[in-house]
Amino acid sequence: MNHDHNFKNLILDYPQQALAFFAEAEAEGVDASARITPIRQEQLQERLGERFRELDVPLMVEWPDGGREMVLFILEEESSGRRFSIHRLAHYCLDLAELFQTERVVPVVIFLRSGRYPSELRLGGQRHHYLEFRFLACDLKKIDSEDFLASPNLVARLNLPNMRYPRERRVEVYAHAVQGLFTLEQDPDKQLKYLDFIDIYAALDEHEIERYHRLYPEEVEKMSTFAERYIQQGIEKGVAQGVAQGVRQGEAEMLCLLLRRKFGELPPALEARIAAADATQLLTWSERLLVAERLDQVL
Q1: Which residue(s) pair with 138 in the sheet?
Q2: Cα-based distances in Å from 181 to 12, 195, 220
Q3: Highest mean pLDDT range out of 1-5, 19-23, 143-147?
Q4: How far apart are CA 244 and CA 238, in angstroms?
Q5: If we measure between CA atoms, which residue out of 7, 29, 34 comes closest to residue 18?
Q6: How many CB atoms lie within 10 A of CB 33?
Q7: What is the pLDDT of residues 107-166, one digit of tens each?
Q8: Cα–chain-centroid distance for residue 43?
Q9: 135 CB-near residues (< 8 Å, 6+ apart)
């Protein structure tokens, strides 16, 4: 699973809310007056050359008074922390500080799973330490989901499935994440995009999906209505713009999302079959989905 890609999208789509959640200790002054700009990796590659280390999302935060701060986001998804290198992170921070002539650099590491990792780096001799380096660690599995069930921060709500909660409350946590998405985000394209994000990290099994349908019928109805509206808007947009391929791709993605929600994870071969289907076939399968009780009744 490409966790890096998922979290890069999340941070780029919602930079201010990402800073407020992942880097709370340093984000207090990042208000609406601040301008947050992602630093393009192509720019870093060109200017740092061989020193460039592709991590995650470097963000530059600027204020009207000329203040400037660099915030680095790095996702580490290994539970053991073995893939995380504090030396590499320190190198990268120093490179960016030199490149942009700033001493205001805040490194933030998002750990998707708990595990052991070095919290600081010290270099020196017997008498003194001459270089000390630390970073902000956002260890999602150590955050209590109960504290964010009603959060107005969309990034926090989307990450509810990644936080700590008893297994028996997974469906409830999933429901609060979905409710947060539909309440706090009005763009249908992003709603679709982050429904998939929630599904990936909640990973409800067949029984949990059935329980969700039983306990939250209004939310299920809302999602069904959204799906129908999204597909119709896609068709109308495609007709207006003459982009049939884009419409078909959107319909295929939506169908896969709804099938996963109702029946659980799909075999890769089945996803490939859906991706290759034409618009007529996709419409037929979508109509069957509304009444089907088993996956084979749809396809």
Answers
A1: 110
A2: 16, 8, 13
A3: 143-147
A4: 5
A5: 7
A6: 10
A7: 898 888 877 888 999 999 988 999 999 999 999 999 999 999 999 999 999 999 999 999
A8: 24
A9: 86, 89, 107, 108, 109, 119
Residue 148 CA to residue 174 CA, distance in Å, equals 12
Residues 233/46, Cβ–Cβ less than 8 Å: no
Contact 115, 79 (CB under 8 A): yes
- Residue in the block written with tokens 């099994």: 205
CB 122 within 8 A of CB 129: yes
CA distance 91 to 70: 14
Return d(Cα 141, Cα 217) in angstroms, integer: 29
Cα–Cα distances (Å) from 136 to 10, 154, 222, 236, in that order, read 19, 21, 38, 46
CA–CA dist 145, 160 (Å, integer) = 6
Residues paired with 109 in a beta bridge: 74, 137
Q: How wide is the angle at C-alpha 34 spanned by C-alphas 32 and 37, nearest 5°?
A: 120
Helix (H) or strand (E) holding 224: helix 217-241
CB count within 10 Å of CB 161 equals 21
Q: Tokens for 238?
A: 């495609």
Q: Which residues lie closer than 8 Å to 227 by C-beta, 6 or more apart?
A: 254, 257, 258
Cβ atoms of 84 and 78 within 8 Å: the answer is yes
Cα–Cα distance for residue pair 133/252, rounded to 1 Å: 47
Structure tokens at 73: 């986001």
Place of tokens 């349908």: 213
Length of the chain: 299
Backbone conformation region of residue 203, classed left if phi is above 0, alpha if psi is from -120 to 50, else beta: left
Distance (Å, rounded) from C-alpha 268 to C-alpha 125?
A: 55
As a three-state string, the secondary structure of 251-280 is HHHHHHHHHHHHHCCCCHHHHHHHHHCCHH
Res 42 pLDDT > 70: no
